[in-house]
UniProtKB/TrEMBL annotation:
Residues 325-424 form the HTH araC/xylS-type domain. SMART domains: HTH_ARAC (SM00342), REC (SM00448). One of its GO terms (molecular function) is DNA binding. It comes from Paenibacillus polymyxa (Bacillus polymyxa). InterPro entries: CheY-like_superfamily (IPR011006), Homeodomain-like_sf (IPR009057), HptR (IPR051552), HTH_AraC (IPR018060), HTH_AraC-typ_CS (IPR018062), Sig_transdc_resp-reg_receiver (IPR001789), Tscrpt_reg_AraC-type_HTH (IPR020449). Residues 32-149 form the Response regulatory domain. PANTHER family: HISTIDINE KINASE-RELATED, TRANSCRIPTIONAL REGULATORY PROTEIN HPTR. Its main location: cytoplasm. Keywords: Cytoplasm, DNA-binding, Phosphoprotein, Transcription, Transcription regulation, Two-component regulatory system. The modification 4-aspartylphosphate is found at D84. Pfam families: HTH_18, Response_reg. It is found in: Cytoplasm. This is DNA-binding response regulator.
């Protein structure tokens, strides 16, 4: 804890103590007492034998029967009731029982002429604070009221601390979510603990749909000459841009010790979200980042694997040339275009088709056709899983000229036809990377 934090905590404690003092013994806010007894001389004797102000209390009202007492408690916001057992219309036990139901925060102290075990037993069951026999001994009553005030003071103080802690937690919920997601995806939380934390932090109880990572390689390479304040400022700005792009999806952004920005998504983002992040950050901040968003089909534990894959991918991205990264991005964005050819892509990138084909094979170990097919089938799987579109419509949406050509490509990649895939509810072991 820093010195400033210790000072802040000390100040907060002082303010709480001050507030409690004002509530409990301040002249304006004292505990309100009601004396309920059918004998006026008894009420007068109780009222006059106690220095109420010294106890931080005041007698707000008197009642000669239980019904009147119950009504006054509600009207005057009474804190403490001194209850006689034998009163007309509603006796002391019934009054206490009603108060427990209607005003559970109100405290009751019995003053009775009956020294009977049955009364005492019932009083204990109803949570009565004390049981004093008539004739009332002033010192005994004062001691009982003092004990009661001390208990109430302590409870108010605890409530103030709980309220303060709840407020601090509420203010720090975003930070707590970030820390939890980082620790969880790094494998520090599992099973029941994850579910409890998700509930406590008011996050969806279902597994994340996607896990992503954004990496800024230049910050790592230039750490020795980049001021830490500047580095943090750029990362913060990047997080804001990512947050705006994901504003329609439930998500948490977090950052690890190396400056990687992690993304936990509880709803699938658009397929091009990774490319959109790279473009927006590049446009607004003039820095190059690498992104990867991995689908999670493995439940809560699978999220950890998805995070590891995403991290591995963004570190692997640093080995790719800018032209390959851009080519892959354009394929991911334009897979539905029937005019998407190697020649058309090479023209957009201002290189020859032969050169583009060679660098794709060298750096990704895949041909242009394989990359396009993979992007199309990935989208087709998503549509089969989440929509009732016909096979013909899905073929059109994924860039195929005919349903037959689409079905052939799908079966070659997935091992089953689109119809079989949909009937079987998907093939869990089959994946399209």
């Amino acid at each position: 804890m820093t010195k400033s934090q210790a000072t802040d905590n000390s100040t907060t404690d002082s303010l709480i103590d001050q507030a409690i003092t004002e509530v409990t013994i301040g002249t304006a806010k004292r505990y309100q007492v009601l004396i309920a007894d059918d004998e006026p001389i008894i009420r007068e004797g109780i009222r006059d034998c106690i220095d109420w102000a010294a106890l931080g209390m005041e007698v707000a009202a008197e009642a000669e029967d239980g019904e009147e007492a119950l009504e006054l408690v509600g009207q005057l916001h009474i804190d403490i009731v001194l209850v006689d057992m034998n009163m007309p219309f509603m006796d002391g036990i019934e009054l206490i029982r009603r108060l427990r139901e209607e005003r559970p925060e109100c405290r009751c102290l019995i003053i009775s002429g009956h020294d009977e075990f049955a009364y005492a037993q019932e009083a204990v069951r109803l949570g009565v604070e004390d049981y004093i026999l008539k004739p009332v001994d002033a010192d005994q009553l004062h001691a009982a009221l003092l004990r009661l005030r001390q208990r109430m003071d302590e409870e108010h103080k605890r409530a103030a601390y709980v309220e303060q802690a709840a407020g601090q937690i509420e203010r720090n919920i975003p930070l707590l979510r970030q820390r939890f997601c980082l620790e969880w995806l790094e494998g520090q939380h599992t099973g029941k603990d994850v579910m409890e934390q998700l509930a406590f932090l008011r996050l969806p109880s279902r597994p994340p749909a996607q896990i992503g990572v954004v990496r800024w390689p230049a910050a790592e390479a230039r750490q020795t000459i980049m001021r830490e304040n500047d580095r943090q400022l750029f990362l913060f700005a990047a997080e804001n841009i990512i947050g705006e792009l994901l504003e329609d999806c439930p998500h948490v952004l977090f950052r690890d010790a190396n400056g990687l920005i992690g993304i936990c998504l509880w709803q699938e983002a658009p397929e091009t979200i990774g490319a959109s992040m790279e473009q927006a950050i590049g446009r607004y901040l003039n820095i190059a980042v690498h992104t990867h968003v991995e689908s999670n089909a493995g439940g809560l534990e699978g999220a950890i694997d998805a995070y590891r894959v995403s991290r591995d991918r963004v570190y692997g991205e640093s080995q790719l040339s800018p032209i390959v990264r851009r080519a892959r991005q354009l394929i991911q964005e334009g897979y539905a275009d029937r005019e998407l050819t190697l020649e058309a892509l090479a023209s957009r990138l201002q290189v020859s088709a032969v050169y583009l084909s060679r660098v794709l094979k060298k750096e990704l170990n895949d041909s242009f056709v394989t990359l396009v097919t993979r992007a199309r089938i990935r989208k087709a799987v998503q549509l089969l899983d989440s929509t009732t579109l016909s096979i013909y419509d899905i073929a059109e949406r994924t860039g195929y000229d005919s349903q037959h050509y689409f079905s052939t490509a799908f079966k070659k990649t997935m091992g089953v036809s689109p119809v079989q895939y949909r009937k079987g509810g998907g093939i869990q072991e089959s994946t399209v990377e």
